[in-house]
Write a structure and sequence with these properties.
By secondary structure, this protein is mainly beta. It has one domain (about 1-460): Beta Barrel (Porin), CATH 2.40.160. Helix content is about 5%, strand content about 65%. It is built from three helices and 23 strands. The strands form three sheets. It has a 14-stranded antiparallel β-barrel with strand order 2-5-6-7-8-9-10-13-14-17-18-19-22-23. It has a two-stranded antiparallel sheet with strand order 15-16. A two-stranded antiparallel sheet has the order 20-21.
Length: about 450
């Protein structure tokens, strides 16, 4: 069904109206390409990947700072998670431009949708009953390209054309500190405070051209750029409880993320021209630079609950999360409440080797895919993983002799996730004829295939 965005041009001589309509489309493209992805796009620790994301009750090490800071209370001692890298390949699910006329020529330039994400880097240390962590996480990174040309030779005699060249990048960093404290032999509590930095860039160019039956050629070009940086904070609290032998329960609460500062630059340049006896040229440009200091919600509150049980060398975990709804007009956020669930586990084959995996949902919080560039995709993912480590005995630290059994463990985790996305993407359709030019957005049901390879390394004392 048609979406609200619609650009119709019936008289090319109405220059101001044309500038406003197509200029709005270019600006919309620049904004939309900078927003993409669901909430849980990547695993942010090796043990999360090993258990397919069902980790609230069992997480420890650097990933605990993100998933459940209470897990820091059971750190072995010093631990350094060197890196968690994610290599993501997505097939399908992108916004495109098509033509209504069957004889129209559509040319689309494509590039492999391959993303490299430096997902996490953490350092942790335990002091008695207290575990501390410093970390940097990259929960969001997305790239968007749209390069399409449409030529409709049957319209208005010949040579009606439309072209789009759009690019967008959206990346978030969360840097912060966390602690986990053992309150009782069966209860741990922890908290994290993250300072968030988000960078968004969207660049688009939109062009229209037409050759009238009287030989008059008309053309329009609009260029838009959006470049924004945001700073904010988000606290996290969590608890882990061991009600009986072999059982673990984890609870984590992610408070709403608050944007405290934003700097944005917006550039819009338009040009309208025509040839012939009535030829004319109109140009306009707008350069805006704005800085805002305010407390604005940009992400809702999320509650995570996990339960796990061990069966000898095997541990099975269940995970559920609930995200509250949020509506912030100035941030273009209108999200519905979302419930996600998953099941995962791991089996230790030896002290050095373990295998694991799981299945989970990553449902879209978007209420609808309304405007061109919007997507509402629900993902269903399955993960397989392997973890291995090598222990090296430590005899001394400087001049200090260490107790027997002291060792360093070098560990690595490799996981592969396949996710099937099902939902709607809003496409654009170009139509031209004697009555004018019509550019409107239309929802299309799509299937998306996503493959993500995770590689994580850690050093534990």
């Amino acid at each position: 069904m048609p979406a609200p965005l619609s650009v119709r041009v019936r008289d090319w001589r109405t220059g101001p109206r044309l500038v406003a309509l197509v200029g709005t489309l270019a600006a919309l493209l620049a904004t939309r390409v900078a927003f993409a992805g669901n909430v849980d796009s990547f695993y942010l620790s090796g043990d999360a990947a090993l258990q397919g994301g069902a980790i609230s009750a069992d997480v420890e090490g650097g990933g605990a700072a993100w998933y459940n800071p209470a897990g820091l209370a059971k750190l072995p001692r010093l631990r350094f998670d060197v890196s968690v890298n994610a290599f993501a390949l997505r097939l399908g699910g992108h916004s495109t431009v098509g033509a209504a006329a069957p004889d129209a020529q559509v040319t689309t330039l494509t590039t492999p949708d391959l993303t490299l994400v430096p997902a996490a880097l953490t350092l942790t240390q335990r002091f008695g009953k207290l575990g501390l962590a410093l970390g940097m996480f990259v929960p969001v990174q997305s790239w968007t390209y749209l390069r399409t040309q449409v030529k409709d030779g049957a319209a208005q005699g010949a040579n009606t054309g439309f072209g789009i060249d759009a690019y967008g990048h959206d990346q978030s960093y969360a840097v912060g500190a966390a602690f986990g404290l053992r309150l009782t032999p069966n209860l741990d509590f922890g908290a994290s405070l993250f300072f968030n930095y988000r960078a968004q860039v969207g660049i688009s160019a939109v062009g229209l051209s037409s050759l009238d039956s009287d030989g008059t050629r008309r053309s329009f070009l609009s260029h838009s750029t959006l470049d924004a940086q945001q700073l904010g904070v988000q606290p996290v609290v969590g608890a882990q409880f061991r009600p009986a032998a072999g059982y673990r329960v984890g609870l984590a609460l992610r408070f709403p993320s608050v944007q405290l500062w934003q700097h944005a630059q917006r550039v819009d340049i338009t040009s309208l021209g025509s040839t012939g006896p009535q030829g004319d040229i109109a140009q306009d440009s707008s350069f805006n630079d704005s800085t805002a200091v305010s407390a604005t919600l940009v992400a809702p509150m999320r509650l995570h609950l996990g339960v796990s049980r061990s069966f000898g060398p095997t541990r099975i975990a269940l995970e559920a999360s609930y995200q509250t709804p949020i509506y912030v007009a100035q941030a273009q956020i209108d999200w519905k409440p979302v419930f996600n669930a998953g099941i995962g586990g791991k089996h230790r084959l030896s002290e050095a080797l373990a295998v694991g995996g799981g299945i989970h949902t990553d449902l879209s919080p978007a209420r609808r895919a309304r405007d061109f560039g919007d997507a509402k995709l629900d993902f269903y993912a399955v993960t397989a993983a392997i973890d291995w480590g090598t222990r090296y005995a430590l005899l001394a630290r400087g001049s200090e002799a260490l107790p027997s059994g002291s060792a360093l463990r070098f560990g690595s985790t490799i996981a592969l996730t396949y996710a099937l996305g099902i939902g709607d993407v809003t496409q654009a359709q170009f139509r031209s004829g004697p009555s004018g030019v019509d550019l409107s957005s239309v929802q299309q049901h799509v299937l998306v295939h996503e493959f993500v390879l995770y590689i994580a390394s850690s050093l534990t004392e």
